[in-house]
Every structure is written in structure tokens, then in C-alpha cells.
Write a structure and sequence with these properties.
elongated; 217 residues; GTP Cyclohydrolase I, domain 2; alpha+beta; 8 helices; five-stranded mixed β-sheet
Length: 217
């Protein structure tokens, strides 16, 4: 089982590296080109991009995109580059739950929003708690699928900390389901992934899920 999981994680890493390399090869459009694209979309939607209320919209959209998709401009390895070794004999679970995030579906470029819950069993070293939230933001602020985002988070933590196990649960509402298509507001999607002790010991999975849900164990 460990060999299979290792192979899957290595494959995911190769795919991520290939995707990043491909993105770097593409020339980034200028700000003026991006604003022109927004004007084109406004006209395609049926409105007049030259009317007063829309004159500055292209600039605002491009500025918003810089923030919403800032995850592309942060090196993956930089977020977890500092760890701490003064943890005494602590070797139990570290859980950061209810990490709110917003991302954008790569299929329709509309938002999906939700919470991420991340836990790991440290080996000698831990990472600052805010860094876990930063990892979630790093991958959320890209065009995404929830499944891929789950895999990216767990792979990043597993490779940086080499813990005894990592658990990730993400729950989110997708506007591509709520605002268009089937139009089912309130439907939530849950994805999970486990490595190490969380994968091998069902009791640790139960403990993780119970703590996430606020159930005493």
C-alpha cells in the first residue's frame, strides 16, 4: 500500500511540475491586453464597455485577478520552508480546522468556497500554524478542481515535514453547480485524502473526523 501511495504522490508531483513548466513557457499578456479581454467579454455578454458604469471595470477586474490568482506567483516550496524543533516529546496529532478559503473552478472560472481541515503527526519538527493556512491559500488562489487542491495540500505537507501521517478534508460549495447548470444551491462537496498513520489506522481517521466535527473522542 505504501508503494502504491508513494507512486501516486510522485505521479501527482510530476504532473504539477509539468503544469508549472508549461505555464512558465506561455508569455504572460500585458495588463493592457488583459483589460482589452475584459472589454471583449463585457461586449459579448451584451453590454456596452464604454458606458460610464463600465469604463473602469476592466482595470478593476484585472486588479482583482492579481489578488484572486496570486497563488501562481508564490513558489510552492517557500510556504513551508521554516520549521521548529523545540517540541519536547510531543508526537500526537496537530490539527488546524475551519480554514476558510475561496477558489475558482478551472472548468467555468466561477468561485467555489468552503473550509479546509488539515492534520499531521509530527516527527521531531513542526511548522508554524499559520503556514498550514497559507498552504491552503497558495493552492486555492489558482484555477482549481477541489480534488486536485486536496492532493496538492497533502503532498506539500508530506514532502516538507516528512510526518508520520497527514489528513486533509475539504468541504466546499461550487457556484458552477449553484448558479448555472443544475442550479442546486447549498449542495456541498467533500474530499478527503490520508497518508501514513491516518491511512493505515482507521481509529486515527475516526479521531480526525470526530475532532473536525466537534465530537468528543
Amino acid at each position: 500500500m505504501d508503494a502504491v501511495l508513494k507512486s501516486l504522490m510522485q505521479r501527482a508531483k510530476r504532473e504539477e511540475e509539468a503544469r508549472a513548466a508549461s505555464a512558465q513557457e506561455l508569455p504572460r499578456p500585458s495588463r493592457e491586453e488583459a483589460e482589452a479581454a475584459v472589454r471583449t467579454l463585457i461586449a459579448w455578454a451584451g453590454d456596452d464597455p464604454s458606458r460610464e458604469g463600465l469604463l473602469d471595470t476592466p482595470k478593476r477586474v484585472v486588479k482583482a485577478y492579481e489578488e484572486l490568482f496570486s497563488g501562481y506567483r508564490i513558489p510552492d516550496e517557500s510556504v513551508l520552508d521554516r520549521t521548529f524543533g523545540e517540541i519536547g516529546n510531543f508526537d500526537d496529532m496537530v490539527l488546524v480546522k475551519d480554514i476558510t478559503f475561496h477558489s475558482h473552478c478551472e472548468h467555468h472560472m466561477v468561485p467555489f468556497v468552503g473550509k479546509a481541515h488539515v492534520a499531521y503527526f509530527p516527527v521531531e519538527r513542526v511548522v508554524g500554524l499559520s503556514k498550514i493556512a497559507r498552504v491552503v491559500d497558495l493552492y486555492a488562489r489558482r484555477l482549481q478542481t477541489q480534488e486536485h487542491m486536496t492532493s496538492q495540500i497533502i503532498t506539500a505537507i508530506d514532502e516538507a515535514l516528512k510526518p508520520r501521517g497527514v489528513a486533509v478534508l475539504i468541504e466546499a460549495e461550487h457556484m458552477c453547480m449553484a448558479m448555472r447548470g443544475i442550479q442546486k444551491q447549498g449542495a456541498s462537496t467533500i474530499t478527503t485524502q490520508f497518508t501514513g498513520i491516518f491511512r493505515d489506522d482507521p481509529q486515527e481517521q475516526i479521531r480526525f473526523l470526530s475532532l473536525v466535527r466537534g465530537v468528543r473522542v
